[in-house]
Design a protein that fits this description.
Distance between the termini: 42 Å
Structural class: mainly beta
Strand content: over 45%
Radius of gyration: 23 Å
Number of strands: 34
Shape: globular
Oligomer: single chain
Largest sheet: 7 strands, antiparallel
Number of helices: 1
Helix content: under 10%
């Protein structure tokens, strides 16, 4: 293992304020998301010994509000026999596992054992258990591990939940055969012995391996009598914007089989022509391995993703620590254009403590960029509503500045397809966003078709020191990208090309 002494000095220029990052060293996929006794637990893939991928263990952080996180000691460390890959955690309320003590339900983590050359199971990936009887403070590996072994090298990322329906009551595990692009489903009465149920896939995006599945039920438009099941499948590469991404399917689950109602293409993709028609969790470059919390209160479905992309994750310009999580998002199903789709809303760090710095609108926008001196900052929430009209492009210039004669800016713009058309294209351009030269795949412009609503475009934008998260049309579309501007690049501007666009309203909160 890499020595801690080899870890370079911490470089905190880009350390986010509201996005969780480990105090030092490498972080990737969120794991074991669970709520217990008033505390949200965020476990994650972590290298305790360096700021690049390796020595995979479960890091741990806790929060009471999903906004401020306290880093805890490493929960499940790797050893000579196995790396601790991704998985999930549950509150075993009825102590089905038998791990509970004194009537207190245990927390049970179900994780992938990636067996090392020193193990008798070398080269395999199988599912194992660890349990906690002190509410997540310490963890013990189960002596009977692994509990589910398919003799596969790519069987991983178990997401476990309690199913209670017409088929019975039992634990369900959704895992993947990654290279086969299949989600495999199993059931268990005790989390230890598992019985095969069914499989799903390949379908829709298959340009990379499938990873980190999730399966959950949601009401449509809040109607408890009309529900659908959502199957999340992350993949790498093959995302809509290039590299890592997450897709989702909407359908039914009868306790045995998931049946998709939103499949566009079955089997392996033959080309990329239908990519925009698939269901994407996010249309940006930096939202991956997204999974949801178990046992969240009030029936909320809360998700969080790794805010990075495997194309360049090891090269991002921070030293001593690397990578952050997205903001936590509440996801819901809403009927749009006659079909249920996911909509997302971030848990808002500015709701309780933010101060409005600037407000404007309604007003006509003149051609060009109008800078907003009162709205500068590196950590902001921006709420904007535009009526694009016949204007060519309208939007915002973010994190702008000049460094050694070079202009830095990230541009979020809506391009009306034609005159007063009902829809156009929303783009996020980070090609001049700051430090963009650390990897050739980082330069990018993300694009997504977004329909106007009554001729209007609504945007909610969260800026942090190394990221932009965009929620368009009340969360119908999201775009998440990392950016690495200079600390001095904090200007915000209103952008319009041509005449005819209206700023309906603008609020900047810091």
């Amino acid at each position: 293992m890499t020595s801690l002494n080899a870890t370079p000095a911490l470089d905190c220029r880009y350390r986010p304020k509201w996005h969780y990052a480990a105090g030092r060293n490498w972080l990737n996929d969120p794991n074991g998301l669970v709520y217990s006794n008033g505390v949200y637990h965020l476990f994650y893939q972590h290298n305790p010994h360096g700021d690049v991928w390796g020595n995979m263990s479960w890091g741990h952080a806790t929060s009471a509000d999903l906004l401020t996180w306290d880093e805890q000691p490493v929960a499940i460390p790797c050893d000579e026999q196995e790396a601790i890959f991704s998985g999930s955690a549950v509150v075993d309320t009825c102590n089905t596992s038998g791990f509970g003590v004194g009537g207190v339900p245990p927390l049970v983590a179900v994780y992938t054992s990636a067996y090392s050359p020193a193990s008798p199971l070398a080269g395999r990936q199988a599912q194992s258990l660890a349990y906690s009887t002190d509410d997540g403070a310490t963890w013990t590996k189960y002596d009977g591990n692994p509990v589910l072994d398919r003799a596969s090298a790519n069987f991983r990322d178990p997401k476990v939940f309690w199913y209670d329906g017409d088929a019975g009551s039992y634990w369900v595990m959704a895992a993947v055969e990654a290279e086969d692009r299949e989600v495999v489903l199993y059931k268990s009465a005790d989390l230890k012995s598992w019985e095969y149920l069914s499989s799903f896939g390949p379908a829709n995006a298959t340009g990379g391996v499938w990873e980190c599945p999730d399966l959950f039920e949601l009401p449509v438009d809040g109607n408890a009598g009309d529900t659908r099941w959502v199957l999340v499948v992350n993949l790498n590469p093959g995302g809509i914007a290039g590299g890592s991404a997450g897709q989702y399917f909407v359908g039914t689950f009868d306790g045995v089989t998931f049946r998709s109602e939103s499949t566009v293409t079955e089997g392996m993709q033959t080309d990329d022509s239908r990519m925009p028609d698939y269901g994407w969790l996010d249309w940006g470059r930096d939202y991956y391995a997204a999974v949801s919390f178990s046992n969240a209160p009030d029936g909320r479905r809360l998700m969080i993703g790794w805010m990075n992309n495997w194309q360049y994750a090891a090269s991002t310009p921070s030293q001593g620590w690397r990578s952050a999580m997205s903001l936590v998002r509440e996801v819901r199903l809403e009927a749009r254009a006659g079909r249920p789709v996911l909509v997302q809303a971030a848990v808002d760090p500015f709701e309780a403590s933010g101060t409005e710095l600037f407000a404007a609108g309604p007003e006509q926008l003149a051609d060009g960029v109008r800078w907003l001196p009162a709205a500068t900052g590196d950590v902001l929430r921006i709420d904007a509503e535009f009526q694009p009209g016949a204007s060519g492009r309208v939007g915002l210039v973010l994190r702008a500045g000049e460094v050694d004669g070079v202009q830095e800016r990230t541009v979020l713009a809506y391009d009306s397809a034609s005159g007063c058309s009902a829809s156009g294209e929303l783009s996020l351009d980070r090609t001049a966003s700051g430090d963009v030269g650390f990897h050739p795949d980082f330069l990018s412009v993300e694009r997504v078709a977004v329909p106007l609503d009554g001729g209007r475009l609504r945007l909610r934008i969260f800026l942090d020191r190394c990221s932009v998260e965009v929620f368009a049309q009340d969360g119908l579309v999201t775009l998440t990208d990392q950016i690495f501007p200079a600390e001095s690049s904090t200007a915000v501007g209103l952008l319009a090309e041509g005449d005819g666009a209206t700023l309906v309203s603008l609020s900047v909160t810091g």
